[in-house]
């Protein structure tokens, strides 16, 4: 008889809860819990995997720049108003989780801050899903606007980001005060990921409120670096490295839809096949690879890709949940 | 070529140099020392001078603030001479050539190494691990004069007499000695003293002197470091240490590390200059020591050097360039014993110079000497030797095996390349406490003088204390705001340790973010080297039972703090043993015992060199160590900050 | 498990005689542990030690070769569970299944399509490796006809013959054994005959069983018959069980040295939902399948799965590099300063961050140093005056800026003289640390 080889993992991934129901002092219809893994992806016989990976629909506060036609087909009808966009993914596509990117605050666009805050306030009213709020990537603007967003969504237990090694103090302090969770972003670097978690927790934010964005490379564009960084971090967590036992958030849609292979039309690259399938497939394969590496939250764009990944996850979890 | 006169103050030395030369090169020619840890390339910004009179041309540099430029401050290495000049060298730019009293050194080594403490401070006799049999011994002989029944030649007569005392089948004598022999024997009435030198497996009659000089036999042990040189005068008969001196290696003017010096050696006269720089330092030390003790230079019969491979190449003026090129092979690891005069070392003209053999290009005789003096090769338990110096040599092993690597740490722990750094000598801040409530700083200096700068152990304390007081975060960035000790500078924020009104120079003593980065890198390099060796041999930190710490620290190193910043592994303090300058101790043992010399040779062939630069995981380990104490907190389970 | 340096060292004579060419026995042992040198180099090794060392150096997962010369596929011989531990050596062989009951015209169409599926990505050609002819028709003629069609159309793929009928496989091999096809599949019911067959032709056999116990028993039986050219097909009742089985085979072979499972694996994808098929194929590709047989030849599917394979089988120890070229930062113009650095991505992005922070529009000239950082590249003579001059010429720098000065990292100040000479440009020595860049640029 072959005796199966079971790893004796002693650690586990932290559990992070997003969203707060009225009972918990918020206004969300439900909460989403991620993390808690006691083994590697889908190895159910070895350890408990209490939470399935979840998918967040990515929406913007402005009409997106650079989204290819394949995505436009699904969203152009609601791009005139981001609140409509949010409602569409919530009601039509049955999203579980929403990820709002505040691109409008970027210095090049420079939307009025009050306008942005109003948008968030109305979003809370129109859509009662748990929220992820991310900034535009400009440190200065994010440091100004995100703490205000944190304030007006106080007690909603959002996931807010992102902080980096060079810019973590201001937002961490806000998130700490307003009861949210934080996204710690590191540039495909295992050391910086660990260091940033330590720096954040040194400010008093507990590890169960940190979600790591390891920075994603899409299929064909550095996917393997992210994959291995995540696998290593996850192995460290399972081996009880407490400071790094955070769930992962992966911005799959953003990266996948930047790939030429996802965007290019068949008339440009005939041998690549139909873009209507190639684009979503690019996003899907990227997503599956990262789920295998331990991804907990996937931020995605294409409704069909999202639907398929959900189905994939269900099938993998079938009879095991 | 047009020539100009340059006068340096406060030295008041004038020199004539060609137009277009830099102020720094004029200063070197004039024998005026100006700090320059980057080797005169406009990088370190330490060679600031004030132009009092005259015109210079200077390249642009970010190393000078607008304010400084307005006050006619230039970098000596970038400013080229265009007219007669008067130049003032401010205190902080002066390379001070220190001569430490043996008392002070004895004090400094106190607490580092029990045996040394006893020996150094009380000047008694050394440990007797190896049989006393120095590199050169003197023997007083009263020869029976020849007569008709005993007609063997003078030389055979001499050998016969020597062999009555010692079993020496093969002896050599130089022609010069033989030429003088007949006359010396007769004029001294057949009473002579011979100096026997051990040379490459045979014995040489080095010297034949009339009368009895056997009581006067001296030797020098040197530790030639990249940054620091130690020299010790030893009575070879009694094994007493008579004097110890320490100074910076003057080669630093040509570059801070071995690589830059190897490159410099390629330049015209480069090798010559480097060779002279080190030989000058050694000769000066020798002169100074014998003057203090009224010893005749002729009674100094041998010199024993421990140094890294590059330093030994430069000392012997051997082209070091192949050390740097793949596959990193030195010209020689084992250098035969030669006449000191051949290398330009001034002792008895026929005196000997021997170097402890090295392992490889980057693990030299200084490390072998260290291993020898710590006795790792006799240990049953797994032991580790860490030499916290510029080259950061690490040796792991026991009586079964020995493996070593060199983790290029840079000179930060020796007080070089950091803004207020200095060697562990009088005036150096070596022990620091910071009050976490009000950030008050308390410190002590070597010699209890006013503070002059900060030495390696001081930096370790400061960083640990700043971490504990949350003045810096674990990445080394200053996070404390709105406090009178925190200021902005060109090198990130800085924290004032001592304000000018309490320091020796009147200048503030500070640590800035770039210094912290430097120390962080240095400690990361060493820690990464240690962990790679341990991991590569399939061990855990826990398996190491003894850790010998060597290096030019002061008489103080806070182990807890060294662990807290992640320089040393997180193991119980009882496993740590300080050995201070283990290379110098090893050099001394070899000087005093031929047995130790043979052992050093064995060790050099036995130690396996592990090349970190081709080890893919080294970079990974190094990056992970660039955090306080370490990115991987599991490696420092007992450290709580 | 393979032996560690120290374990090997203990088996050596420990005389440091240097006959092997290494300075010490330990140094030799370290090379042996890395399998970088042969044990024959040591003339004084005892027979016993030699035996121990030879046994320990056997690969835990057998290297299997399918097909002949130009269409040869090598799989197996993997050494790690996670690619970051070392790397994955032999990329998963990917093949398309061709059903033999399709009309000829359809089959020719598919073969042509498969032949056309070649993609070039970052200098590598990506293509499929295998064509599997599956005997769905239950007719020998149909099976042989399709094989014949494939063989006539192309010789650049290894073949898999899939049939439940041993007679059919026997016939096919009589005709095509020279192509060294992979035979699918031996089970507990037919293995005796099939193994004899495979052995006589010297070809590789897929061994299939419902669980790992049976799989292990089967391969042991085959081994007893002197047959080792095996690919394992673990079956499972669900996708997650299959993932588990593939993981177990890899772990048992590597960590427990289970020889009966020390072979590469094969997965045949079910023809279900097209998207899901690719997603499951991706799953098994990442988690240890040696061969994947799929039912699609759509270009977008194949491009996706081949790209994933390229990613996963990339050597993780090669550093992240960026393209070496001139990068403008901000609204750089002809008066902007030019900073020189390497093409190690971490170095480049660090410099970029600081230059951006300075808010002074600049150019960064990234020099090809094979992904090494400044000091490493300098020590290895990859970041030198001449490599910088080459980069300047390639970027046509003299047309991009009107001034003639370069800023080099402080750590390589020593090269400034030579660089000035070679380039004719003025060289300004910048700070050693990227963190010094903003103040440096402001004071320039």
Sequence-ordered SSE layout with sheet pairings:
The complex is a heterotrimer of chains A (321), B (641) and C (444).
Chain A: E1 15-18, E2 32-35, E3 54-60, H1 69-75, H2 82-92, E4 97-101, H3 113-126, E5 131-134, H4 139-152, E6 159-163, H5 169-178, E7 181-185, H6 190-202, E8 210-213, H7 223-238, E9 248-250, H8 252-256, H9 260-263, H10 275-293, E10 295-300, H11 303-317
Parallel strand pairs in A: 3-4, 3-10, 4-5, 5-6, 6-7, 7-8, 9-10
Antiparallel strand pairs in A: 1-2
Helix pairs in contact in A: 2-3, 3-4, 4-5, 7-10, 10-11
Chain B: E1 3-9, E2 13-18, H1 23-30, E3 48-53, E4 56-58, H2 66-70, E5 73-75, E6 79-81, E7 85-88, H3 102-109, H4 114-122, E8 136-142, H5 154-165, E9 171-173, H6 175-187, E10 191-199, E11 202-210, E12 218-224, E13 228-235, E14 240-248, H7 258-266, H8 270-292, E15 300-307, H9 309-315, H10 321-324, E16 338-339, E17 352-355, H11 365-374, E18 383-387, E19 393-397, E20 402-406, E21 428-434, E22 441-445, E23 453-454, H12 456-468, E24 486-489, E25 492-498, E26 509-512, H13 513-536, E27 546-550, H14 559-564, E28 576-580, H15 582-592, H16 594-606, E29 608-609, H17 616-624
Helix pairs in contact in B: 3-4, 7-8, 11-15, 11-16, 13-17, 15-16
Chain C: H1 5-11, H2 25-33, H3 47-56, E1 63-66, E2 73-76, E3 93-99, H4 104-116, E4 118-121, E5 124-127, E6 130-134, H5 140-153, E7 158-162, H6 166-176, E8 182-186, H7 191-201, E9 204-209, H8 212-224, E10 230-234, H9 239-255, E11 266-268, H10 274-286, E12 291-294, H11 299-312, E13 326-329, E14 338-342, H12 345-358, E15 362-367, H13 374-379, H14 385-394, H15 397-400, E16 405-408, H16 416-423, E17 426-429, H17 437-443
Parallel strand pairs in C: 3-6, 3-12, 6-7, 7-8, 8-9, 9-10, 11-12, 14-15, 16-17
Antiparallel strand pairs in C: 1-2, 4-5, 13-15
Word description of this protein:
- The complex is a heterotrimer of chains A (321), B (641) and C (444).
- Chain A has helices at residues 69-75, 82-92, 113-126, 139-152, 169-178, 190-202, 223-238, 252-256, 260-263, 275-293, 303-317; strands spanning 15-18, 32-35, 54-60, 97-101, 131-134, 159-163, 181-185, 210-213, 248-250, 295-300.
- By secondary structure, chain A is an alpha/beta fold.
- Chain A has one domain: TIM Barrel.
- In chain A, helix 4 packs parallel to helix 5 (169-178) and helix 10 packs across helix 11 (303-317).
- The longest helix of chain A is centred in the last third of the chain and has 19 residues, at 275-293.
- Chain B is built from 17 helices and 29 strands.
- Chain B folds into five domains: 3-93, Ubiquitin-like (UB roll) (Roll); 103-127 and 218-355, Nucleotidyltransferase, domain 5; 136-210, Ubiquitin-like (UB roll); 373-411 and 520-635, Nucleotidyltransferase, domain 5, CATH 3.30.420; 421-515, no CATH class.
- In chain B, 29% of the residues lie in helices and 24% in strands.
- In chain C, strand 1 (63-66) and strand 2 form a beta hairpin.
- Chain C has 17 helices and 17 strands.
- Chain C folds into three domains: 5-56, 3-methyladenine DNA Glycosylase II, Chain A, domain 3; 63-312, Alpha-Beta Barrel (TIM Barrel); 326-443, Rossmann fold (3-Layer(aba) Sandwich), CATH 3.40.50.
- By secondary structure, chain C is an alpha/beta fold.
- The chains are: A alpha/beta (321), B alpha/beta (641), C alpha/beta (444).
- The A-B interface holds A 165, 169, 189-191, 194-195, 198-199, 202, 236, 239-243 and B 470, 473-475, 479, 623-624, 626-627, 631-634.
